[in-house]
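Sample log: ABC transporter.
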Amino acid sequence: MSSEPMMIRAEGLGKCYRVYERPEDRLKQSVVARWRGLRGQPPPQYYREFWALREVSLELRRGETLGVIGRNGSGKSTLLQMLCGTLAPTTGRVETGGRIAALLELGAGFNPEFTGRENVYLNGSVLGLTQAEVDARFERIAAFADIGAFIDQPVKTYSSGMYVRLAFAVAVNVDADVLVVDEALAVGDMYFQAKCMAHIQRLIDDGVSLLFVSHDVGAVKSVCQRALYLDRGQPVALGETAGVVEAYYSARVQAERAARPAPEAASPELPAQDLFDPADLEAQAEFARRADFQRIRNGQAEFLDVRLTDLDGQPLECVEFGQTVVLRMLFRANQAIALAGMAYHVRDRTGYDIIYSDTEIESRPITDLRAGQVVQTDWRFTVRLREGDYSIAAMLSIPENLEIAQVDVCDFVPIALAFKVVRGETLPLHAACHWQNEVAHRTLEGEA
């Protein structure tokens, strides 16, 4: 257990709202309930309860990063508001330590009639800074926000992007112990988002705790050590980010599948033993064992094996930077399929997607499959990844609308295989990956 001091502890948090069907029911609840209470009678109930959040417990220590994921309406923003003290919980309790700077919904904490400058001082005082302390930070805040002369205009005249620029600049320059960031960053331009994420990483390196909510699961995976998955106000999973994200993806796939008409019944599993020698069958059995973690299948088609080999077909677990390898995927169609798609993700040890490709991107669709047909697909590529540990996720699907990434998932294996990349004879790589370049030099001679 970490010895770092506790920044946030929540136990059994819940938030319940009363929902009235008619305006007069609210009045009845106020008057009649009080009148019956005075007479010693049980009060009536003219409302129904809606629990926006229920039984959420978590801990965040100094220097830790926790992401909160879930679909719209799952209770993410409600949770953050209670943790920041801007919303009182119905049940449970929250304990906090140190200064918390929050970037919640757009414009939260700003007075629209005040100028940007006045709001900087207002927010600073709310966070416990003296005027002299805000004075010392103001130029840094204004430079980070980069809104020019608008700093002296009322914030009601700001665009959404200007709002979030100023709000973020204040939040990250008040020497907070905990930074809480909701979806507000999504309205900024790409340059500002990159600037924000780089600054957040520096704060984390300096020991600031982060509570981060985003629909960008990739950002959560890259920034957060742990994650909490909420669904309809209740916690589903809390733990290491990669595992929680896979639980979230699995739940979404299952929900989408349940909402669709049931597919035609798949043919009984068809034997493929006569196609393979004993070594291949043993490799397929080993694949089935390691692929079982959070695997999703609908029975229409399924992977038999996924392996990484050298150019001679020998299995690989360790790859040198610059080595050309083959990713071999073997699958069987259990029923006739007119068009199938296949994809792979190369992920780092945190589960962050580094490389992706699929058969549509490569213009190699798989068509006219017969029931029982077995297909082997080889992806040949040169590994140009930073040294470290990686895994490959494999997906087999039936495309429906690729413009919006809508597919019917036949088989999804979050961890189809794992491998290690070593540097070999090359110099260190200072990013996640490298792509091939053509470099040309020429000398431009100026006048003497």
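Observation: The mean pLDDT is 86.
Observation: The radius of gyration is 27 Å.
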